[in-house]
Design brief:
single chain, 11 helices, 2 strands, 49% helix, transport, respiratory chain
């Protein structure tokens, strides 16, 4: 609102509002603002007319263009399915060796397998399959149940100590907690197992006594040479790969409390094609490692 007083510097009328000697001018709205407001209004009006916009209670206005995002998504998914049908059929029907020898097909397997692995396996085994405490390093460590393609695919399908009726079952006894061995024997066998893969300060007598305990209690699963047995999922104790820690205290804790790792079965979560792609991806991951 103007009060009839004109500012001598700008030529605009004043509103009558004044703060500490500063008078408010009754300046017009910049034309650029009015222009963009008009453009925005016209765009909104055009969008309301052409596109689905206004709810009508149980539905919505369809717009002159009749665009439906659900239809668009369905068409996009159908196109994607058609695009992958060719290579997916080759993976489903082909044997593992033939697929691995096909460089073009393996490029697609790597891309798809990387996504499948990241979505389903990386939370436990790590993005690069490097594993962590309690989870095996599947990119490098020896396979507990065997690494042949069919064997690996079966492990993915049924899991380990899982709810699947055909799951692989593996459990290490709690030799200390269940009073199978007394503490002196636990210490001796822990020292012996520790010495199988690394330097130790234990005396020769302790190691010999520990081997006696090992032979009496552990060879049934880990073998006479302590290199493990795939038919029961028992790990090799002579290599550098340890799931729960290779230090003496970690080995003692494992012997004392036992271990029962668990992996879910993926038969009801992933399709046969997805499980086969995962199998190929894991084999390729190990090849790179």
């Amino acid at each position: 609102m103007s009060v009839g007083e004109r500012d001598p510097y700008t030529g605009h009328m004043t509103t009558g509002h004044e703060w500490n000697g500063i008078k408010e001018l009754n300046a017009p709205v910049p034309k650029a603002v009015l222009f963009f407001l008009a453009v925005t209004f016209l765009f909104s009006l055009g969008y309301w007319i052409l596109m689905p916009a206004w709810p009508t209670g149980v539905a919505y206005t369809r717009g002159l263009l009749g665009i439906d995002q659900r239809t668009t998504v369905a068409e996009s998914m159908a196109a994607a399915a058609q695009g992958r049908a060719g290579w997916a059929q080759k993976v489903s029907d082909g044997d593992y060796a033939a697929i691995q020898a096909d460089t073009v097909l393996m490029r697609t397997v790597r891309q798809t397998g990387h996504t499948l692995f990241g979505d389903n396996c990386a939370v436990c085994h790590g993005q690069q399959g490097q594993g962590g405490k309690g989870y095996p390093a599947i990119a490098k460590a020896p396979w507990l149940w065997g690494g042949e393609p069919e064997t690996l695919a079966e492990t993915i399908r049924v899991g380990i100590n899982a709810t699947h009726p055909d799951t692989r079952v593996s459990q290490m006894m709690a030799f200390g907690r269940d009073k199978v061995l007394e503490r002196p024997d636990l210490l001796k066998v822990a020292a012996y197992v520790h010495s199988l893969s690394q330097k130790t300060d234990a005396s020769a007598a302790t190691l010999q006594e520990g081997k006696v305990v090992f032979d009496a209690n552990c060879v049934a699963c880990h073998g006479d040479d302590a290199k493990g047995k795939r038919d029961v999922g028992a790990p090799d104790l002579t290599d550098a790969f340890w799931i729960y820690g290779s230090d003496l205290q970690g080995i003692y804790s494992t012997i004392y409390d036992g271990r029962q790792g668990q992996m879910p079965g993926w038969e009801n979560r992933l399709s046969p094609l997805e499980r086969k792609i995962l199998t190929l991806y894991l084999l390729d991951l190990r090849k790179k490692s």
